[in-house]
Design brief:
- With about 800 residues, this protein is α+β, with helices and mostly antiparallel strands.
- About 70% of the residues lie in helices and about 10% in strands.
- The strands form four sheets. The chain has a six-stranded antiparallel sheet.
- A hairpin with a 4-residue loop joins strand 4 and strand 5.
- Helix 5 crosses helix 12 (about 670-790).
Length: about 800
Amino acid sequence: MYLSKLEIFGFKSFAQKTNLKFKEGISCVIGPNGSGKSNIVDALRWVLGEQKVNTLRSDRMENVIFNGTKKRKPLGLAEVSLTIQNNKKILDTEFTDVVISRRLYRSGESQYLINKTPCRLKDILNLFMDTGLGPNSYSVIELKMVESIISENASERRHLFEEAAGVTKYKIRRKSAMRKLDATHQDMERISDLISEIQRTVNSLSRQVGKARRYLKYQEELKNKEIDLARFRYMRLLDEIRPMELQLAEIKSLKEDTTHQITLEEALMEEYRSELVKIEQSLSKKNEEIFEQDQLIQKLQEEDAVARTRNESIDSIQIKSRQEISEAHEKIKHLENSLLEYGSEVERLDSETTALQQTYSEKEAEFGEANNQNILEKKRVDELNAQFKTELETLSSRKEGAQKDLYEYNWNREQKIKISSQINEMDKLITVQKKKLDDAEDSLKINQQKLSACTGRLSKLIDKKSDIESGLEEHKENLRKSESAIENINSKIKFFEQIISRYEGHSDSIREVMANKTKFPGLLGPIADLLSVDTKYRVALEAALGTAAGFLVVENVETAKKIIEFVSTKDLGRITLLPLDRVETLDIPDQMENGAHSLLLSFVNFDTRFQKMFTLLLADFVVVNSLEEAINASNKSPQLRYVSLAGELVEPGRTISGGKKSEDNASLIGRKEQLEQLHQQAKSLQKTVKSETGTIGELEASLQRTYSEINNLKEQESGLQQQVRNDELLCSQSEIELENLKQKKKELQEQFNTAVRRISELEKSVSTLEQDISGQQEKLNQLEKETIARTS
């Protein structure tokens, strides 16, 4: 065995696929530092399964993949294949050439292959174990391993010696076997724990079974006691009822007398009621008259109050008038006094005026004539000058007024043009604002409709969600009930399977024989397990069979002998066997006539091979409804045996048996039917659970979709509500702006109308002033000429 070839691709510095062939003898790899010589040794270690990253001179396993250079891209995997010539069959394989390969991807995935077949690392290690090859074997030695060999550490040298001697393989196998043995011991301990735990559960269940049986027994006893108590109470109540019935008869007669007396009293009361109605009618009329009088009195009182108020007002007016008259008289007196004073003063002034007038006349007479002419001329000139000055001032003021009116007229014309332009601009703004308001109202109407529709859909979805949640809760409750019922039924099934498999209720000898039934090929089983009957007739059939229900049926007498010998050897008590080959040889009479009743055998189901056996056991049993009916039928046909549905027996020998079977003797018949019924119930409930689970899944999916739709609609509703609020705000703003524009237009229109009126007034005023100024100018020119003429 020798190394023949090494293929390296993507491992450390080997970016390209490199093949190294080794022939027999010694092969040397020579090169400068850093050329990759050590990478070849690392590749050998790596392909042989080396897992220590520091041994490969790296910090992570992914770093052994070529990481790239400036001119080459990094690779995605590293692969090394080692070819070994197995010509001496040292390796435990049938191949002559063995190729070991290892791949590593950047994702961390690693693969091992033997002859291109995927394998485990353990397979490679086992293949090279004790051959001298391996990641830690003496066949690959580096510098630090040489140091460890020549060191004084005996454990490291022992490792090399064991590898060379072939001991390592057995030590590894021993460790693996010890680990497996420890794991097995732990598993055994866990199994022991489980067994003890299960045993405790079994013991607990056994105690519970005992408690259940005692409970059923006590329950039956309680039922019988309660029936007896109820019977006793019934008889006692009958004794108490008899004197009460006599008392009731007396009370009934007294009631009849009392009823007659009450009838008479009611007739008399009816007469009293008719008289009372008449009195109430009369009283009602009197009350109406009193009410009318009260109304009249109230009206007179109101009129009296009004009159009093008027009188008080008139009195106050009179007092005020008297005061005013008194004040007027005082004023008159004061004025009369003043008039007297003024009269005397006037007389005095008149006398003075007369004296002065006389003096003035005298003076005027003296100077009048001399200066009269001069004065007249001067006066005339002064008058002309004053008139000229007055006319000139009047003309100037009129010109100034005309100039002001002209300025105002021009300003009003400019304002008229400006206001007209503003009114036109305002009309445009009003049109635009109206359009904006109409658009906002249309948008508001559309969004309100969308919001209403969205709210309606959301309300329907919320109702649908409530319905789905209630339905889901109902189905979950049904599922919980079904699962609980399944658990109960499974518990019952386990109980029945346990008592059937253990043949509970049978004797110890039968249970032991059935436990070893493989030893007895001809054993068919207890009679109770070989038949079936409707639940209605189960008690009657059990009573009819009696202890025969626990007989074991066998094919032949030989089998019976073996079983009896087995039971005797084990000292298990007595056992009764019924061989079919003996039954077949018996002369069994035909079934007896049943008269008006039905034979019990007609209701029993069994295999035809047991026909003779069950005919022998049950042919003369007639099933009836009650013990009384059984006794009557036995008197007529005493050769038959009668059994009631409650299990009471009437034998031909006149013996009668009945009563409830004790709980210790549990029913042996119908166990398998009950078990089958429980299985059917379990299957039905499983279908129900599956159906309910599917329905719940559908409802939950529907509920999830409904939640998603509700959330979407809520988002839409929120968005639409925000849009509606924005549209309402926009409408409100637009209406306010429109009203402001209309108000501004109205003010501008009033200003425009005022300017038009003022322009018209100013036009008339200016025209009048121009005419006045023209006439006044002519008059002024004439006065100027006359004044010049007077002064020259």
